[in-house]
Each structure stands twice: as C-alpha cells, then as structure tokens.
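re: that chain from earlier
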Amino acid sequence: MKTKTIEVSDAKARVLEAAETLFHTRGYKAITLRDIATAVGLNHASLYHHVPGGKEALYIEVMERTFRKHQAHLEEALAQAGPDLRAQLKAASRWMLSQPPIDFTRMMLADMTAISKSASKRLSVSAFVAFWHRSRKRLWSRTPLGKFA
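^ sequence. v structure.
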C-alpha cells in the first residue's frame, strides 16, 4: 500500500509559522486572520487559499502541529535517556525547561471558550495524548511498580 505524503507549500509553511507565533504570544481571541496575513506579507483575501477553513481551523492545525512537535521531541529525549526512570525524568525535565512555554491557562480559560465545543474537545484530547498519555506509558512501562530507587 502506498502512503500519502502531505507536502506543505512554502507560503502555507510561513502562514503556519506566523500563526503559531501570534497564537502563542497573544492568544486566539486577540488574533485576526488579517494579523496573520500581514505578518506573512499576504493579502487578507489570499490567506483563505491557504486556510480555507478559517481562523478556527487554522488554530486547530497550529496547536495540533505544536503538540506533535513537542510529543516527538519529548519521546526522543526519553528514548535517548535509556531505560532508567531517573534518567528519563531528568531528560524529560531538561527538554521541557528548554522549550518556550505553552500558556495552557490562557488556552483553557480564553482560547478554548472562543472556539466550538467540538474543536475544544479535539484539542483537549490532542494535548492529553501529546503531553501525558504517550510519555506516561513510555515512562511507566519500563519501571516495575514501586521501583523508584
């Protein structure tokens, strides 16, 4: 079976990068598509070619992309740490502290209330899987219960 590769155009990549920066620094409610278009140097109407679903769809794409990047890098840090739980926890902590923070408080109190319930639920599940579920499984699967010494 042939796998489908999703390629992102240069313009779409620039839109995603600009949107990520703006959403992370100012939040969903404070950003307009016009702000993103201006940051990328596109006409506001041209932005819809790259973001046909509008602002909410772009926000979901940006946040899920952010979550996937964090998940991949965290899993890489855990894998490089080896099987020792302490080493894994140190590696995870070092990696997390080296990253720009994601303002989950603002996201939950302001951004998530400004998007549809289905979008909010989708992002909540994506965040849980990326930041907790898979890492927890990786950490605890190698450590017998009660063996933290």
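DSSP finds seven helices and no strands in the chain.
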